[in-house]
Design goal:
Chain A: GO terms for molecular function: ATP binding. Chain A: This is Sugar ABC transporter ATP-binding protein. Chain A: Keywords: ATP-binding, Nucleotide-binding. The complex is a heterodimer of chains A (about 300) and B (about 350). Chain A is of the alpha/beta class and about 300 residues long. Chain A has one domain: Rossmann fold (3-Layer(aba) Sandwich), CATH 3.40.50. In chain A, about 30% of the residues lie in helices and about 20% in strands. Chain A contains ten helices and twelve strands. In chain A, helix 6 runs parallel beside helix 7. The radius of gyration of chain A is 21 Å and the shape is globular. In chain A, about 50% of the residues are buried. Chain B is mainly alpha-helical and about 350 residues long. Chain B has one domain: Orthogonal Bundle (ABC transporter involved in vitamin B12 uptake, BtuC), CATH 1.10.3470. Chain B has a two-stranded antiparallel sheet with strand order 1-2. In chain B, helix 3 runs parallel beside helix 8. Chain B is globular. Classes of the chains: A alpha/beta (about 300), B mainly alpha (about 350). At the A-B interface, helix 3, strand 8, helix 5 and helix 7 of A face helix 9 and helix 10 of B.
């Protein structure tokens, strides 16, 4: 799969079905320690082409560590990290990019004062002409950027406008379209909806779906179970650096997901204690037995 | 464009609209307003106003030779203002640019005079020294992560001291000896400091170099990968790095470009005056920076042009000479500068707010 041809969109999409069910990216019992602090432990994750894998978790649950391992910013210290079935260890984000793993960060990777089309091609500009006169192929870049954005359903009045004038959601979408165009097979989205309003979030979710429909494996990091449930095929909930839940869409309901995210399991354990305290209404809290979907919880569980 | 649809979507893919459709939320502003929002148009209008003002206030300005003189004055500022502007767009600035010019001239002058070499040897060594100073500035900046203000302030003080001390040490004087009778002087003078005739008016060759460099800088900035990177490293360094722009290379090479400019102006000074005063150049760096800012370059980086500083430098040259032609006290020059600078900064600020308004 090293025949990644940047600049010709679609080629990487067509050959994905040949791999059948083999995950593009797989973590087996992966973990990461910073000195004596164990940020992540025993995490299993699979990313399949054309599927959205959601990683949910509260602040400090280990979501960032997880994506940093996959995107090549950090290295795992335990377990295995496989791309196309072979174990890998990335030392720079560039290596991850070369294997088709692109990360779209919340704020990073656009230059606000530069026009949309220049941002789209920044770092991978199209050129024409021999060396001393080698220049940007502006015509082709604008046309390509426009086509690619339209293919993702993004319509902009003017590609010359500084990208800083776009809304947060639109900027995310341009970043997603750019990653898709430059041959990404796996798209990691770091809380793309975190800073957005309801409508803007909807727009971003739509483009996540569009990326999935083009055959990409998507890792969608979020702490909003409602957003995750709208596009997700598989859900992994991280809690204190370990996997609390790993379930397919068919195995888990939005309610259960929300409970897990809201620390439902812990709340249930607290229920009995709280019941002793006067003035605390525990009737509405779920019982521990209601959270049966947590079958995949790691043996270590929570504290 | 073909799309391969595979999985069962929970949310459907939006349809790709036709090529003519727009989202229709941004009304197209009138051409005049859009032009005015461009910083180089603002400074162009400013330069025209200043020119017209002095055409009326100082009748000698109407003469062709006065215009040639004003252009010459502008070109010596303008040649340095160009790389300083590119560096500023790239998010940094260089306080050592003024004294670096003198350093370069001193190197070429003293080396060829003391060792009785062909002046071209001195010229080449001076180029190496100037590029080296740029390399040092850029390298220090990248390695330490300090703001360029501090790094280049250090270089500025070092060079200022070295210029004086080394010149006194070598020549026993604060100025270098005249090199006008040395091998290769005439050749070098033809390139760096000659004069040619246009319809009876003597025009300095630096005016031509200035405009050639400006055209080149504009092309590089707007039409090449490197130009794209300059905007990117100035606009958002971290983003640029994340998408694969060689940030270190771009920043260091920009400092070296300022070194090249310092070398060129230094050579001009040397070959037009034959000797170099070692204490000069202090304060010039602020003139270059001011010309770039008046020319619409954003002090914080990420926006600007190469053509703006051309008009910025022209405004400087115009005011500087215009005051003399008008018979006023030349001390007014600095006051004028201050007013122009503040005006330009306010316009820049307004433009940036307008451009990034949601």
């Amino acid at each position: 799969m090293t025949d990644k041809t940047t600049g010709t969109h679609g080629t990487t999409v067509q050959d994905t079905p040949a791999h059948g069910d083999r995950p593009l990216v797989e973590l087996r019992g992966a973990g990461k320690s910073y000195g004596n602090i164990r940020a992540l432990h025993g995490v299993d994750l699979e990313v399949h082409p054309g599927r959205v894998t959601c990683v949910l978790g509260d602040n400090g649950a280990g979501k960032s560590t997880l994506i940093k391992i996959i995107s090549g910013l950090h290295q795992h210290t335990e377990g295995e990290f496989l791309v196309d079935g072979e174990p890998v260890r990335f030392s720079t984000p560039r290596e991850a990019l070369d294997r088709g793993i692109a990360t779209v960060y919340q704020d990073l990777a656009v230059v606000p004062l530069m026009p949309v089309w220049r941002n789209f091609f920044l770092g991978s500009e199209m050129t024409k002409g021999p060396w001393p006169l080698r220049r940007l192929d502006i015509e082709r870049m604008k046309k390509t950027a426009d086509e690619e954005l339209r293919n993702m359903g993004i319509v902009l009045d003017d590609l010359e406008q500084p990208i800083g004038t776009l809304s947060g959601g639109q900027r995310q979408c341009v970043a997603i379209a750019r990653a898709v165009y430059f041959g990404a097979r796996v798209l990691i989205l770091d809380e793309p909806t975190a800073a957005l309003g309801v409508k803007q979030s909807g727009v971003v979710l739509k483009y996540i779906a569009a990326a999935r429909d083009r055959g990409l494996g998507v890792i969608f990091i979020t702490h909003n179970p409602h957003h995750a449930y709208m596009v997700g095929d598989h859900f992994s909930v991280l809690r204190l650096g370990t996997m609390e839940l790993s379930a397919d869409r068919s195995e888990v309901s939005l309610e259960e997901l929300t409970n897990h995210m809201a620390g439902g399991a812990e709340l249930a354990a607290l229920k009995h204690e709280l019941a002793q305290v006067r003035g605390v209404d525990v009737e509405e809290l779920p019982e521990e037995t209601d959270l049966k979907a947590s079958a995949a919880a790691t043996p270590e569980g929570k504290s | 464009m073909s799309m391969t649809q595979q999985a069962q979507p929970a949310v459907t893919t939006p349809p790709a609209p036709g090529p003519k459709e727009t989202d229709g939320r941004t009304a197209r502003r009138p051409l005049a307003l859009r032009l005015l929002a461009r910083p180089e148009v603002g400074v162009f209008l400013g330069a025209v106003v200043v020119l017209i003002f002095f055409l009326f206030a100082a009748p000698p300005v109407r003469d062709g030779s006065s215009i040639a003189n004003i252009l010459y004055q502008s070109s010596t500022i303008g040649i340095m203002a160009l790389p300083v502007a590119l560096l500023m767009i790239g998010g940094e600035f260089d306080l050592s640019a003024g004294v670096a010019v003198i350093t370069s001239a001193l190197t070429a002058s003293m080396l060829s005079y003391q060792l009785t070499l062909n002046v071209w040897v001195g010229v080449i060594v001076a180029l190496a020294v100037s590029l080296g100073i740029g390399l040092f500035n850029g390298w220090m900046l990248i390695k330490t992560g300090l703001p360029s203000f501090l790094v280049t302030l250090g270089t500025f003080l070092i060079l200022q001291g070295v210029n004086l001390a080394v010149t006194k040490l070598v020549t026993g004087n604060v100025a270098t000896d005249s090199i006008s009778d040395m091998d290769g002087f005439e050749q070098a003078k033809a390139i760096f400091a000659s004069t040619f005739d246009v319809a009876g008016v003597q025009v300095k060759i630096t005016v031509v170099w200035w405009l050639v460099f400006a055209a080149l800088a504009t092309w590089v900035l707007l039409r090449t990968k490197y130009g794209n990177w300059i905007f990117a490293v100035g606009g958002n360094k971290e983003s640029a790095r994340a998408v694969g722009v060689p940030v270190t290379f771009t920043k260091i090479s920009l400092f070296m470009l300022v070194g090249f400019g310092a070398w060129f102006v230094g050579m001009h000074n040397l070959f037009s005056f034959n000797t170099v005063q070692s204490g000069e150049g202090v304060g010039q760096e602020l003139i270059y920076i001011a010309a770039a800012v008046i020319g619409g370059c954003l002090l914080t980086g990420g926006a600007g042009s190469a053509i703006g500083p051309v008009f910025g430098a022209f405004m400087f040259g115009m005011v500087q000479q215009g005051i003399v032609y008008a018979g006023w006290n030349p001390d007014w020059f600095k006051a004028f500068l201050g007013v122009m600078l503040l005006g330009a900064v306010l316009i820049n600020l307004w433009v940036q707010r307008t451009a990034t308004r949601r």
